[in-house]
Design goal:
8 strands; Rossmann fold; 17% strand; 9 helices; alpha/beta; 8-stranded mixed sheet
């Protein structure tokens, strides 16, 4: 599941405009829509491994709320807490090119690798995305939000990296255990991690005909693009082109020349990743506006 880009990237510049409160027993960042919005639909944003410790996730929630007119909830839901952003510059050191014959450089790389392992080793021990320790609280949270929505309001799910597994997983779950009503009314994920493909993507689309959008990084080493493309082809064989035929909606966009994490943590100075992040944000906003 993991790749170096899971723990690298840039910190966004900006001041979040939402507020943090407690919802369903979890600290939750709430990005509210403009006062002119009349919609009561809600989006749950399941973050990357850095959670609410990384301001990028809050700023994305703010952008979604303003552009869609929907409330956006970002729960602090990663078991044991999110990864510290302090690991990002350490991973940059690990990934710096070093000559084979540069003894001091190789020694420094080993040192920084061990430092990085001290961060993400414990993280994956407690918070591997497909483990029940992660999936159960995410499902419970989504069901609680859905149950409290007023009549006619809809629920969307967005997920990045670690959270991409969660947002797709809840698409295959009913609103109530044992029920037949879908839990999620529209889903967007960018560079999801930990997926079992094609099964997880097929289930997300077909179980309850949930509209599913995917932003896939071309150079993603956590979830191989070929597997995503093959999964999309299988879905097309099963249910059609995803344009509403028989009630199925899905889209997969491949973002050329970018790596895992681009939609949340575009690397400083990388214009292609910055543009890709903007395009992925627009993809998500249009998808949610269409279906929520």
């Amino acid at each position: 599941m993991a790749c170096p880009d899971c723990f690298r990237g840039g910190k966004a510049v900006g001041d979040p405009t939402g507020e943090t409160t407690t919802l369903y027993g979890l600290s939750t960042y709430v990005a509210s829509p403009p006062s002119t919005s009349t919609s009561q639909s809600t989006i749950i944003l399941f973050t990357d491994a850095f959670g609410l410790k990384l301001v990028n996730n809050k700023l994305i929630a703010d952008a979604y709320a303003v552009a869609t007119g929907f409330r956006v909830l970002v729960p602090d839901i990663i078991p044991g807490g999110p990864m510290s952003p302090d690991v990002m510059p350490i991973m940059d050191k690990v990934m710096e090119p070093v000559s084979t014959f540069d003894i001091l450089g190789q020694a420094a790389r080993v040192f920084h690798t061990l430092r990085a392992l001290s961060y993400f080793g414990p993280f994956f021990w407690r918070a591997f995305p497909s483990s029940p320790a992660c999936t159960t609280p995410c499902l419970d949270y989504a069901r609680n939000v859905k149950a409290d929505l007023p009549p006619g309001a809809k629920l969307g799910a967005a997920g990045f990296c670690w959270g991409g597994y969660q947002s797709l997983n809840v698409c295959a779950e009913p609103a109530v255990a044992g029920g037949t009503e879908r839990l999620i009314d529209a889903q967007f994920t960018a560079h999801p991690s930990g997926l079992k493909l094609p099964d997880d993507l097929v289930k997300a689309v077909t179980t309850f005909k949930t509209p599913v959008a995917v932003a896939q990084a071309e150079n993603d080493f956590a979830t191989k693009t070929k597997l995503v493309e093959d999964s999309e082809a299988l879905i097309r064989q099963k249910v059609g082109p995803g344009n509403g035929e028989d009630g199925y909606y899905y889209e997969v966009k491949i973002y050329k020349g970018v790596a895992h994490g681009f939609a949340v943590r575009a690397k400083p100075g990388d214009a292609k990743e910055a543009d890709g992040a903007d395009e992925a944000k627009a993809q998500a906003i249009e998808w949610f506006k269409r279906f929520l």
